[in-house]
Amino acid sequence: MDRSRLLAALLCLGVGLEPAIAVESAPITPSDQGAVPSLGKSLDLIDPNRFGPAPMPLDATPMPVVEPAPAPQTPDLGANPAAKTTDGIDPNRFGGKHSDEAYGAFQRGLYKTAYNLGITRAEAGDAAAQTLVAEILSRGLGVARNDGEAAKWYARAAEQGIPEAQFQYALMLLDGRYVTRDDKAANALMQAAAEAGNRFAQFNYAQMLVQREPGGKGLEKAVPYYERAAATGLPDAQYAMAQVYANGVGGKRRDDNQARLLLVRAARQNYDSAQFDLGLWMADGRGGDRDLKSAFGWMKLAADGGNVAAQNRIAKFYMGGIGVDPDPILAGAWYISARRAGLNDPEMDDFLRGLTDAEMKQALERANRLR
Prior knowledge:
Layout: H1 9-12, H2 101-107, H3 111-123, H4 127-139, H5 147-159, H6 163-175, H7 183-195, H8 199-212, H9 216-231, H10 235-247, H11 256-267, H12 272-284, H13 292-304, H14 308-320, H15 328-340, H16 346-353, H17 357-369
């Protein structure tokens, strides 16, 4: 997963990466820290429709952790664009009513029917129906995708104060492909949606604040919005707040326990950056008990998900037997996978050169089978 999450402003404040942890039997060098998804990320906005994986079930955690699990979150419509139905989705996010036939059809996956029922009301000025029609058009649900037409309906609903429409139209105004780009109008709409409680708008508005005003003041303004979005269970915001607490910035005192708890919550939603960081923290005993087995489990999840830094780090875990039995073949395989993605680690290059021809052949074969 290639997600961009965080706080370039931290670098403006002089906050750097935490020192590499020292774990027995396998020194962890800074050579892979350039790929560590921790600090210094660009301030990309997030679109709810990019959320693919569902929250990770608690019984899928690699090892028990001491922090309590977050309460299950009500899914958002945009959380899983591949889903065939929208069971459990509250139509009130559009400003609609539970008894509405169009929303009922939408929830049952009858998108063409929902569109036909909603378009007449949308044309008559019904803001909820306008938002519903825009959603269907923007995602091509049961009808041909038409972003330009969707923008028109989002704009009309946004004018009537529907937070979801304000958020989506703000994204379109920032993008400028289907409407004329207007950063000022986008900022106003994003703020309005954030104040109304849209969690994606809260996170994105925080990103915009940091980008507009780099440094401590901008971050202090952004933190309340990150915090509100994190409280809803949004993993991007949970990870953002973990970094805020880990570094004691944005008006917050350093609190490693709170930071680790937030990393756990984001990691349980398959957020690879949080899984990577949590693996490091558990291996180091930062913010809680040292737990090498759990550290390995979280790092392995991030590596399995395609996080290149985690692939290199899990190679070192296998090399040194950190939370797992030593396995030079898997150590070689994971490093080969990371190197193919562009990460070079002199220590691991030396390790590969120390393998026998037979071991190197096995490592290459295993690397070819890794996801």
